Amino acid sequence: MPLEYNECFLQFLGNMILKNLQPRTKSILIVGLVIFIGISFIVSLGYFFYNEPNKPLTPPINAKDEAGRLIQLASQNFFYHELDQAVENYEKAIKLFENRSDFKRAARTYESIGDVYKFFHESKEAENAYLSAIKYYKKLNDKIGEGRAMKRMGDFYMKLSKLDKAGEWFYKAAMKVRDAKPHIVKAKIYETQGHYFLKSEQVPKALESFQQAKDVLDEIGYPLGYDNISPMIQKLKRQQKKKST
Question: What pTM value is reported for the model?
Fold first, then answer.
């Protein structure tokens, strides 16, 4: 519930309590009001410490789920720079996810494989893994997941200093999530595209992308990301103003 509606609601209740109700009824409503305020405060904290929904977290080492244990093992393999073992365990986890039709987690695991290959500079394998994730998300009609995987492709090409290819994938990612509901991934796509535009010296487009990211962050109520990106927007606006004078 927006803050202004909360204030109107509280004012309305206050007037009712003071003017129209019996003492016993007033007490009941006051208790209800206290509970309402407490719930609103908890919800506000939830927005302040907003985390991406379904964010992939490495399962605990004693995970009861076999796929979870395999992902944990793959994470350990990655830590010790054991590329082949990490990929093998991720692929075993993918097969388990596929067997139980958990295709979304299979897609996320393909993203992890792409990250592993990218870290070890295995360009072709990283690209194939990200493309596999994109295909899965497309079948699931998961625009946010598909956009995130496309963004990772862009990040991958940025690391290789292939700006043209990076720009293509960032554009695809932005187009994919354009009509999606506000989401932290959507904001990150716009923000990353903004950094790409800066690197390729396209300042007006960078400013536009950062503003889009800021608007999404504002919609989802993510103040930390909002505060981080606002100074960049103000800096670019000052630069644009100096150029125009």
Answer: 0.72
